[in-house]
Amino acid sequence: MIEVKNISKQFEDGYKVLDDINIVFETGKTNLVIGQSGSGKTVLLKTLVGLHEVNEGSINFDDRNFTSMNFTERKLVRQEFGMVFQGGALFDSLSVIQNVMFPLQMFSHLTHSEKLDRANFCLKRVDLINKNHLSPSEISGGMKKRVAIARAIALNPKYLFCDEPNSGLDPITSILIDNLIKEITEEYQITTIVNTHDMNSVMEIGDKVIYIYKGRKWWEGNKTQIFDTNNKELNEFIFASELTKMIKHKRG
Amino acid sequence: MKLFFHLGRYTKLMGKVFSRPGKASIFFKQILKEIDSLGINSLGIVIIIAFFMGVVITLQTAYNIENPFIPLYLIGLGTRDSMILEFSSTICGLILAGKVGSSIASEIGTMRVTEQIDALEVMGINSANHLILPKIIAAVFINPFLTIISIFIGIFGGWLAGVLSGAVSSENYIYGVQYAFEPFYVTYSLIKTLFFAFIITSVSSYEGFYCTGGALEVGKASTKAVVYSSLMILLFNVILTQLLLTH
């Protein structure tokens, strides 16, 4: 469980990007953070993993206060993190298999063949086979995301962070990625946070949905409650497309 | 004020760079990879430049010796001392600032803008140490060898040009190369090389590491890396010469 208590984040130019956010991200559930571009979703995610420092408030990983930890303590907690970046963030100089093996090489004491087995298992788990020796530039966007997920789960993380995992992907691949994230979350009982502005993802995997508006938590619920909300800003966001308007109309 | 900002940030970065590396086996593998990438891959350009510098120094010295009382073996002596004192360390340093510096800044800059550095940090890896320290160690280790090679190639180039053009006989040139040899000049050259290797790798890494934006900014960081590394090399050339060669 990740508990976010009253966090605020202000950049050096004075712009307050996160304002008094309180959220509990539950274990074994896919927690979705939705909101318009520029609403503060990515900053929130990067703040959770410590890439940005908070100005106020605290972040607790299973009752461990991450914000008050020093560099060494954070390093240990971070080894329990898995993160899928928007562009995949695969290491260009390494092949697919080397990318997945990288965290194992850095932090595990397994033998080379055990690491190789684990990496192959993770790649198989994301349905990526026979691509081991290709470089990231030789695979498609969807494959990159799958390699990134395989790398993120290589060390059996307790917390999985995904920043817009299906941005730039076709609808079929998006659903594959969404389902994969949900399956992994339930299978390994991890705390997963997914940043997205894709309504398909909300409808597919939104166990818990948090709507961020102008840096503040504006709404919290799940994928069924979201269609019945009276929240004006959220409604404008959800029903921006004809498709979602039609779904709402059909639901009555 | 901006100078102090960059100076402070550079010092902080170096603090992160010079910390205990993660896993020794991976760290040593990376050092070997960087020796190949920064050193061995630069051998070709260093040899070409050193050869032509030696040729030009010899031809220019020969051209300027008009007085028949000046012995011709001074051409060999002039080429040797020019190569050792200045050309092999400083000029090769400047050339490497262009080749290696831009490559380091664009590599690390691209990693920054594509969130690869963030990925390392999230994994709990000290990205500055993981990416920059092997480059610094590799350059500081391999660049003195490049300097030594360039000294020999430059002297050889001078000999070839002198003999083929008829400016100086082979015996005279070789006598000049051996005449009044001051071993400390080589030490001075190697000390400069060590400083320049550190400057090229650390300044270029700094520019790449704090690059923000996209491809355009990576290009700008790469240009800045070359400019600032070159300026620092020229500045430290003066400082080290003043410290080491004046009595």
Kindly provide the name of the CATH class of the domain at 1-80 and 189-252 in chain A: Alpha Beta
Helical element count of chain B? 9
Q: What's the CATH topology name of the domain at 1-80 and 189-252 in chain A? A: Rossmann fold
The helix fraction of chain B, in percent, is over 70%
Write the layout of secondary structure elements.
The complex is a heterodimer of chains A (252) and B (247).
Chain A: E1 2-10, E2 16-25, E3 30-34, H1 41-48, E4 56-61, E5 64-65, H2 71-78, E6 81-84, H3 96-107, H4 112-125, H5 141-153, E7 159-163, H6 171-188, E8 191-196, H7 199-205, E9 208-213, E10 216-221, H8 232-238, H9 242-251
Parallel strand pairs in A: 3-8, 3-9, 6-7, 7-8
Antiparallel strand pairs in A: 1-2, 1-4, 4-5, 9-10
Chain B: H1 2-17, H2 24-39, H3 43-64, H4 74-113, H5 116-122, H6 127-165, H7 170-178, H8 183-209, H9 215-245
Please characterize this protein's 3D structure.
The complex is a heterodimer of chains A (252) and B (247). In chain A, β7, α6 (171-188) and β8 (191-196) form a beta-alpha-beta unit. Chain A has 252 residues and is α/β, with parallel strands linked by helices. The two termini of chain A are 36 Å apart. The longest helix of chain A is centred in the last third of the chain and has 18 residues, at 171-188. Helices cover 38% and strands 23% of the residues of chain A. In chain A, the strands form two sheets. In chain A, strands 6-7-8-3-9-10 form a six-stranded mixed sheet, with helices on both faces. Chain A has a domain at 1-80 and 189-252: P-loop containing nucleotide triphosphate hydrolases (Rossmann fold, 3-Layer(aba) Sandwich), CATH 3.40.50. Chain B is mainly α and 247 residues long. Chain B has one domain (25-241). Chain B is built from nine helices and no strands. Chain B has helices at 2-17, 24-39, 43-64, 74-113, 116-122, 127-165, 170-178, 183-209, 215-245. In chain B, α1 packs across α6 (127-165) and α3 (43-64) runs antiparallel to α4 (74-113). The longest helix of chain B is centred in the middle third of the chain and has 40 residues, at 74-113. The two termini of chain B are 36 Å apart. The model of chain B has no long low-confidence stretch (mean pLDDT 95). The chains are: A alpha/beta (252), B mainly alpha (247). The interface between A and B is medium-sized, with 25 and 16 residues.
